[in-house]
Design brief:
Helices cover about 40% and strands about 5% of the residues. By secondary structure, the protein is mainly alpha-helical. Strands 1-2 form a two-stranded antiparallel ribbon. Helix 2 crosses helix 3 and helix 2 packs across helix 5. The chain is globular.
Length: about 170
């Protein structure tokens, strides 16, 4: 187990806390495996689910921020991700288990998946949807990604959740 990291920590901080080298290509592959599991769980279990919101957000229209979901709903999805994890990702999830039964690794990833869909993130409304996925940060914080803008062509849109262009 590693010490918990706050959800708002940067991707770089997240990777270092897990003992991963942010400059290693294998780290990027591992990150996307973790993120893909969180994306699939979000889409299947949280996306558009008004019934899982905390009472004060019951009348909020989607998309929802992670904080809008009840603690029980968010924790349930975290447990679901852990229970369906691949052996490779479970090894990292095991590092995030806490004495209270939480999992900071999965919570961090799920929080960031929600963050890019909640409509408040300025980058989420631009072509730099997942700028935290860019590790070129000489000052220790995430920098803007140019992947979407440099590879997008007419008649396509950038699906940052899967890091691909779609028609």
């Amino acid at each position: 187990m590693t010490a918990p990291l706050i959800r708002s920590a940067t991707k770089r901080q997240f990777l270092i806390q897990l003992g991963l080298d942010p400059s290693d290509d294998r780290t990027s592959q591992t990150y996307w495996l973790l993120k893909d599991e969180a994306i699939r769980a979000y889409e299947a279990q949280l996306q558009g689910r008004r019934d899982l919101l905390r009472p004060e957000y019951a009348n909020q229209d989607p998309p929802y921020a992670a904080a809008h979901f009840s603690a029980a709903a968010f924790s349930s999805v975290v447990r679901s991700i852990y229970s369906t994890a691949t052996p490779e990702t479970r090894a990292y999830y095991n590092r995030g288990r806490t004495a209270q039964g939480d999992n900071w690794v999965i919570s961090w990833m799920l929080y960031h998946v929600c963050r890019y869909r909640d409509g408040r993130n300025i980058r989420a409304r631009s072509r730099e949807f997942h700028a935290d996925d860019d590790l070129d940060d000489s000052n220790g914080s995430g920098s803007s990604s140019s992947t979407a803008s440099s590879t997008q062509t007419a008649g396509t849109f950038y699906d940052a959740a899967r890091n691909v262009n779609r028609r």
